[in-house]
């Protein structure tokens, strides 16, 4: 299952997963319908809580790239409802339906004790997913995501421009990472040992 398949990272995961013979069926629930031929099943749902009960939650593994921005959400509670509550509600549905692996696209600096609201939210969702009983949980923490975007994100654009210029002198952890590289890492990390694995940005290649 891919959550957030219309987004910058999620759409890359979907593209790469389509070509990957390991996957028999890809379930990609979205709010807007996808061009979803072949092995992609695309339930279109409003993503209001509570989420609908459906057979398609029964998957082996989930890659979650779902999230919003404070600007898009409009307030901290609205942001929290998406990046925390909605992610956990999806994880619960999939876990209850038998999913064994959950791979979360989190963020650099995620920490439930952080004084920064965004990083605290990401840290809280990481901790909650880790306690849900999945056999394998992967928490990937990319730095700034380098991707073409339709929406206007001036602060991100400025950050990307500055970090591209300064890349040679920025420590690897803080360099931007491409959506393609993140997607490849998330897909690769679906398999491996049991437990909770944290991947820092410099490990996303
Ligand atoms: N931007 C960065 O530099 C950065 C850095 C580190 C980590 N991250 C995190 O990485 C994750 C993926 O980032 P991204 O850049 O790929 O995000 P993105 O391009 O903004 O895509 C977000 C995805 O989440 C979905 N979504 C948002 N609100 C939703 C809602 N209320 N209900 C259902 N679906 C919803 C979007 O669906 P729609 O198309 O329907 O809106 C889209 O598929 C996010 O959690 C983000 O916080 C971002």
Describe the structure.
The protein is of the alpha/beta class. It has one domain: 3-Layer(aba) Sandwich (Rossmann fold), CATH 3.40.50.720. It has six helices and nine strands, in the order βαβββααβαββαβαβ. It has helices at residues 8-18, 70-73, 76-96, 117-130, 154-166, 179-188; strands at 2-3, 26-27, 40-41, 61-64, 101-105, 136-141, 145-146, 177-178, 195-200. The strands form three sheets. It has a five-stranded parallel sheet with strand order 1-4-5-6-9, with helices on both faces. Strands 2-3 form a two-stranded parallel sheet. The longest helix is centred in the middle third of the chain and has 21 residues, at 76-96. It is globular and about 50 Å long. The model has no long low-confidence stretch (mean pLDDT 95). Bound molecules: NADP nicotinamide-adenine-dinucleotide phosphate (NAP). NADP nicotinamide-adenine-dinucleotide phosphate binds at residues 4, 6-10, 30-32, 47, 65-68, 82-83, 86, 105, 107, 142, 144-145, 156.
